[in-house]
Amino acid sequence: MKLIKDFLKYQAKTTPHPLSIEIKNAFGSHIVDSDNKKYLDFIAGVSVCNLGHSNPVVIKAIEKQIKKYMHVMVYGEFALEPSVKLSKEIVSKISKNLEVVFLTNSGTEAVEGSLKLAKRFTGRKEIIAAYNSYHGSTHGSLSTVGVTYMQEKFQPLLPMVNFINFNQDKDLYKISSNTACVILETIQGGAGFILPEKNFLKKVKKRCKEVGALLILDEIQPGFGRTGKLFGYQNYDVEPDILIFGKAFGGGLPIGGFCSSKKIMNSLSFDPKLGHISTFGGNPVISSASYAAIRELYDKKIMNKINSKEKLFRKYLKHPLIKKINGRGLMLALILQKSSIADYLVKDCLKNGLILFWLLWEKKAVRITPPLTIQNNQIKLGCQIILNTLNKYQSKFVN
User: Fold this and answer.
1) Which of 205, 240, 248, 389 has its CB 3.0 to 4.6 Å from that of 224, i.e. a possible disulfide?
2) End position of a domain, from candidates 264, 299, 334
3) pLDDT value of residue 320
4) Largest alpha-carbon pair distance within the chain?
5) Domain enclosing residue 317, as ranges
6) What is the bridge-based pairing of β-strands 354-355 and 38-41?
7) Is the peptide bond before 156 cis (omega within 30 degrees of 0)?
8) Domain end call among 299, 316, 332
9) Contact 129, 115 (CB under 8 A)
10) How many domains does the chain have?
11) What is the 3-class SS of the chain, one letter each residue?
């Protein structure tokens, strides 16, 4: 208990009541606490550990690079093989108009860089985002979060940020010749894993092209195989002008990035020089881990099994207290009948060895984002724990 006490005393908190499990180790789809209790992990570090915990291929890549060199120079000055290989690998897997990668330390930093890039390239100031979006917690990123109560205590934020409703064609007129960029999550995360409908992303891109604005797609959650494609936008026949990624990008280590065409990205390198800079962006150890993680996705054909695993979740998770299941692939959200059920589900499942978590804005939702490597029998086991808990709730509070 000493570690828990010190954790609560010395480490800053993001909520008044953290889950406070003392972690001993983690492997595959399991996490083990200091009492040797083993938990089945259905959230993968909030969509980070796509290859599971302690993936041996990623660990080997880290160990190999550490023996050569770690940090040697600020981003963009020296040619570091791991960072160059990683950037080249990403570019080879995405749309042809996305030619250059800027490596950052996190997803929110990638958002910051992409917003600056759009304003610099277009010479415009207006940014349009979506209501109920989430793009990060730094000031610029928070300015594009479409939830008023998250912003009000931190004002003033960026000026000239306006909002549209996701999946609402009637709002497209708001994108105008004053707009530098439209930033959208390919799949809205905090809102409840809301998928784009009726070619909404294509319609936004068309409108952006008409008025000379740039489309930025935030793939921090859907990216790196979670939807069955390397990036979620590849399911929707649309090409962003700027693509943002993070979370699973590092194979479990912290990294982010944004990419665009050479023409657009080059505008950060002059007038002024050093238009966007980073000390640790493109760290060679993390880049080595990231490259290994991407290769593992393809070499093991992991993405080929995502759709069948999604079907298993949808098959097993049928219960009167579950209204619907949002999302795609292994980015799923249980939408419960009310928020108190979601709270009970997360807490009771934790007691019974299953890790679930909430979403940011949709209080009736429970996240299911397991490692992509999760086995079918583990899916069945975890779903049974969920059903047992829902049955328990039903007998206590409904019947």
Assistant:
1) 248
2) 299
3) 97
4) 68
5) 2-54+304-398
6) parallel
7) yes
8) 299
9) no
10) 2
11) CHHHHHHHHHCCCCCCCCCCCCEEEEEECEEEECCCCEEEECCHHHHCCCCCECCHHHHHHHHHHHCCCCCCCCCCCCCCHHHHHHHHHHHHCCCCCCCEEEEECCHHHHHHHHHHHHHHHHCCCEEEEEECCCCCCCHHHHHCCECHHHHHHHCCCCCCEEEECCCCHHHHHHCCCCEEEEEEECCECCCCCECCCCCHHHHHHHHHHHHCCEEEEECCCCCCCCCCCCCHHHHCCCCCCEEEECHHHHECECCEEEEECHHHHHHHCCCCCCCCCCCCCCCHHHHHHHHHHHHHHHHCCHHHHHHHHHHHHHHHCCCCCEEEEEEECCEEEEEECCHHHHHHHHHHHHHCCEECEECCCCCCEEEECCCCCCCHHHHHHHHHHHHHHHHHHHHHHHC
Ramachandran category for residue 52: left, alpha or beta (phi over 0 → left; psi -120 to 50 → alpha): left
pLDDT at residue 398 in the model: 83
Joined together, the tokens standing for residue 276 give 């966007």
Does the pTM exceed 0.90? yes
Report residue 383 as tokens.
């779903």
Residue 9 burial (CB < 10 Å; 0-12/13-18/19+)? exposed
Beta bridge partners of 256: 104
